[in-house]
Amino acid sequence: MVQAWYMDESADDPRLPHHLEPDRPVSLEQLRKLGVLYWKLDADKHETDPELAQIRRDRSYSWMDIITICKDKLPNFEEKIRVFYTEHLHLDEEIRYILDGSGYFDVRDKEDKWIRISMEKGDMITLPAGIYHRFTLDEKNYVKAMRLFVGEPVWTAYNRPAEHFPAREQYVKFLAQTV
């Protein structure tokens, strides 16, 4: 099951866990209140998994590809890792399903504090449009993930500040309505 926690503010290697002292775990319910959705699936059968197929139908995830993030497979690896770790938002949902390896998604809570979500094989996450977030590998330096989209993929990330986008405005309204 996925683990999430509030992060410390250390400038140390972002691939480290960065737990607060004392630890402040974050539940799936807390993530849901931020609009973050999570599923645990069987990554070994992702090509034929009826549960994944049902999620894709229910949420209209019609496009997908697979990306491998490691030094040997991703061109301009160091630059891409820096880009992924820069705080940003998207105008559409970001959907990632970890097929192998592991990494971290960091999301901002209502008080603008970082929550780290540890993702590993079988974890699938949907980040809502307009949420500030970032991604990094962990110390294993390897992840293979399925990227899913509604319709044609849009790869544009808008670095913070990006408050003027309607997706951000809608997300902030959504947050204001959650307890």
- Helix and strand content put the structural class at alpha+beta
Q: What would the average pLDDT be, to the nearest integer?
A: 97
Helix content: 10-25%
Question: Strand content of the residues, in percent?
Answer: 25-35%
Q: Tell me, what's the shape?
A: globular
Total number of strands:
10
Order of helices and strands: EHEHEHEEEEEEEH
Q: With helices defined by DSSP (H or I, 4 residues minimum), what is the helix count? A: 4
Query: What is the radius of gyration?
Result: 16 Å
Any low-confidence stretches, pLDDT <50, length ≥5? none
Biggest β-sheet strands, sense, barrel: 8 strands, antiparallel
Distance between the termini: 24 Å
Folded structure, characterized:
It is a single chain. The chain is α+β, with helices and mostly antiparallel strands and 179 residues long. 21% of the residues lie in helices and 32% in strands. The strands form two sheets. Strands 1, 2, 3, 5, 6, 7, 8 and 9 form an eight-stranded antiparallel β-sheet that branches. Strands 4-10 form a two-stranded antiparallel sheet. The radius of gyration is 16 Å and the shape is globular. The two termini are 24 Å apart.
Element layout with pairings:
Layout: E1 3-6, H1 28-33, E2 37-40, H2 50-59, E3 63-69, H3 77-85, E4 88-89, E5 94-108, E6 114-120, E7 123-127, E8 133-137, E9 143-149, E10 158-159, H4 166-177
